[in-house]
Amino acid sequence: xxxxxxxxxxxxxxxxxxxxxxxxxxxxxxxxxxxxxxxxxxxxxxxxxxxxxxxxxxxxxxxxxxxx
Length: 68
Fold this sequence. Notes:
The structure is a single chain. The chain has one domain. Helix content is 65%, strand content 9%. By secondary structure, it is mostly helical. The protein contains three helices and two strands, in the order ααββα.
């Protein structure tokens, strides 16, 4: 996250760094490093679980229908 703050790219982390969200006082604020790191970890885990289940389900269906 710190590297992207210094050298923004066209990726998700750079976009999260640039994002503004309403704070508790209603004023816009930027996400801190802990919030960005937590979001990326959550998203990565969710993505990995989705892919794993997709591949597992596909294998079951191919076994049920080998002609496909």
